Amino acid sequence: MAENKSKRLFTIAGLVILALGIVLYFAKAPLGLNRKIYDLPIFLIIIGVCFALKGFMAKPVVNELNKVSFGEFLTNNAILLAMLVLVVVICILQPRFMQIRVALDILTQSSTKLIMALGICFTLLIAGTDLSAGRMVGLAAVVSASMMQTATYANRFFPDLPQVQVWLPIVIAIVACMIFGALNGFLVAKYDMHPFIATLAVQVIIYGACSLYFDMPPNNSQPIGGIRADFAQLGQMRLFSGAFKGFPGISILIPIAIVICIVIWFILNKTVFGKNVYAIGGNREAAVVAGINVFRNIMGIFILASCLYGIAGVLEAARTAGATNNYGNGYELDAIAACVVGGVSLNGGIGKVGGIIMGVLIFTIIQYGLQFINVSPMWQQVIKGVIIAVAVAIDLTKYRRK
User: Fold this and answer.
1) What are the CA-CA distances from residue 398 to residues 61, 76, 103 (Å)?
2) 159-183, pLDDT tens digit by residue?
3) Same domain, 58 and 118
4) DSSP SS3 for 347
5) What pLDDT is stored for residue 1 in this prediction?
6) Can you give the pLDDT at residue 150?
7) SS3 228
8) For residue 323, what are the β-bridge partners?
9) Same domain, 257 and 345
10) How buried is 85 (Cβ within 10 angstroms: 0-12 exposed, 13-18 middle, 19+ buried)?
11) Which residues pair with 227 in a beta bridge?
């Protein structure tokens, strides 16, 4: 398919979907379709605009449509296509899934997961991993929440602590995570320890240290509550709430995640550090020969990743208005799975921010959608495992071809 035909196809498809959405939007009330299609017209309008813009702004690429290219397209987008089919099935079984409120809930649930996945992607890009990520989330949540309790709360973690500025516990929590991130980086860079082993050891250390902190008197391992309103607002505030009739508002977590995505995209694509990350992941020996300081860059990778884990932990504590030492348990596995589904290669050197966003959304949509139609949690785990296995198999197949 020639370049101009490809662009024209996207543009025409976008305009058709846009027109269909507009027609349904104005026709659903007179035809009595409000309870059958809910906010589907709005979704069609958004999809149509996106397709049309892609057609107008597509870069010059010449593709020949044949069995080979079509097979590669199906391979590269198998998980996404499967998700779209599942979404259609869910919408048929439960039309209430087609609501703006549901979409905003999915984006809200994806926000902290996305921030964490963006951190762990740096370690995957150098053909490593980070098993300590989830425990860092828990550490940041406990440290920040312990200093953000109201003065009148009966079971204060620090009874004599004055009401400090909201930014101080946040900085302390993130710095605490960055210290352990530096330890991860030092073990990997200095001793050439495999990231799996290094981060596994640090994971155990973090959980032990967090549990000791959490067990300090007078708290004695009690769940931390009584969180101040100004701190809770960081995770619970809703923007534009009530701006339109029935509009629930946009969670503050969504724009925070968007800003962090933009920053990480800039770091990976527009900075020397980002180029070095890809170079080290692609071929570490060649990176050394090219004069890249591998030690310094690996240290920077793990410290930056831990900073993002700390931010995710603080936001989780604010969103739930509390914390325990078990916060973040297993989060790293979901983050790794989302990155792999989003196209980050386990062999290093390959991965994009856009793919990571898609991977996190795919997992969240599938989990939320299956809960929406009351699928058993056990079956949800089975489906998640199948998705991970298929994504890794596709990744390895593409790697062998290259």
Assistant:
1) 21, 9, 32
2) 999 999 999 999 999 999 999 999 9
3) no
4) coil
5) 47
6) 94
7) coil
8) 224
9) yes
10) exposed
11) 149
Contacts of 385 (CB under 8 A, 6+ apart): none
Domain-embedded: residue 315: yes
Contact 279, 132 (CB under 8 A): no
Instruction: Tell me the CATH number at 144.
Output: 1.10.3470
- CA end-to-end distance (rounded Å), the chain: 23
Pairwise CA distance, residues 370 & 358, whole Å: 18
Q: Are both 119 and 247 inside the same structural domain?
A: yes
Containing 210, the helix (H) or strand (E) segment is helix 195-214
Residue 56 shares a structural domain with residue 110:
no
**CA 31 to chain centroid:** 39
What is the pLDDT at residue 23? Answer: 92
Give how many domains the chain has, as a whole number: 2
Domain of residue 60, residue span: 1-65
Which tokens sit at 341?
A: 């589904």
- Do 196 and 54 reside in the same domain of the chain? no
**Residue showing tokens 């959405």:** 21
Show the low-confidence residues of the chain (pLDDT under 50): 1-2
Is residue 390 in some structural domain?
no
